[in-house]
Design goal:
Length: 236
């Protein structure tokens, strides 16, 4: 069994080395870390190449820019049986891989809890699940998902169903799409143990747009658009 860890990077020089090191020590020799870079203007690429580990595959995102398309590019480059998503600026907790793989013996996707930390890894909140009342289920997560993409691991059958992502990334973020595809068509489990230090700082990636993401109209447009694309996946 091969694991592919898929990371989207962009101007991540401050934290990416620490994150890569926390990942590589949990991977086996035949696993891979795919890093798709959105044409960073800082030292991100140089830092990655300086690590010199054969498990790292660095690729450029040559398509549409933005973190959803960047993740999609990394996912398309992956070859593993199990896929983990990861951001460039977090830190994996020891035994994350072992615990997540145990869930995937009986599930298609697993989502772990996380500790919310600041830029220096000081804990802001001990439990993302408790803070946001995270629950399983399609309707819970279609209407108001709290799953974090960087806390996800899933089997290749999930990825095969989810790719390609819907065309408009403004209305369909990668982690929301993977959440509703998995909840609609596969078996999802959650792990209460925080397996990620989820770093919040002033340079976290976010999407913008003419319509505020907090507006009611935006939320309606997202759900209508994603539901339309989700229904297209029903086998005929």
């Amino acid at each position: 069994m091969k694991i592919s860890v898929c990371m989207a990077s962009y101007n991540g020089e401050m934290y990416i080395r620490e994150q890569i090191e926390s990942i590589l020590k949990q991977l086996k020799d035949n696993d891979e870390l795919i890093i798709s870079d959105d044409n960073s203007s800082d030292k991100t690429r140089a830092i990655v190449e300086d690590i010199k580990d054969h498990r790292i595959k660095f690729v450029l995102n040559k398509g549409e820019k933005g973190y959803t398309r960047n993740f999609e590019n990394a996912l398309k480059e992956s070859s593993g049986d199990i896929i983990f998503l990861t951001d460039q600026d977090d830190v994996w907790v020891d035994n994350k891989v072992v615990i997540m793989l145990k869930h995937l013996e009986n599930s298609d996707m697993v989502v772990s809890n996380a500790k919310i930390v600041d830029a220096q890894l000081k804990v802001i909140h001990d439990s993302h699940f408790f803070l946001h009342n995270v629950k399983k289920g399609f309707w819970n997560n279609f209407l108001k998902t709290r799953y974090i993409g960087a806390c996800m691991a899933f089997k290749r059958n999930v990825l095969s169903r989810a790719l390609p992502f819907p065309k408009n990334q403004k209305y369909c973020a990668h982690d929301y799409w993977l959440t509703i595809v998995s909840e609609a068509y596969f078996k999802v489990s959650i792990e209460d143990t925080p397996l990620l230090l989820y770093r919040r700082h002033d340079k976290n990636a976010s999407t913008g747009g003419e319509i505020s993401q907090n507006s009611f109209l935006f939320k309606v447009l997202v759900r209508v658009y994603c539901l339309f694309n989700l229904l297209k996946l029903i086998p005929r």
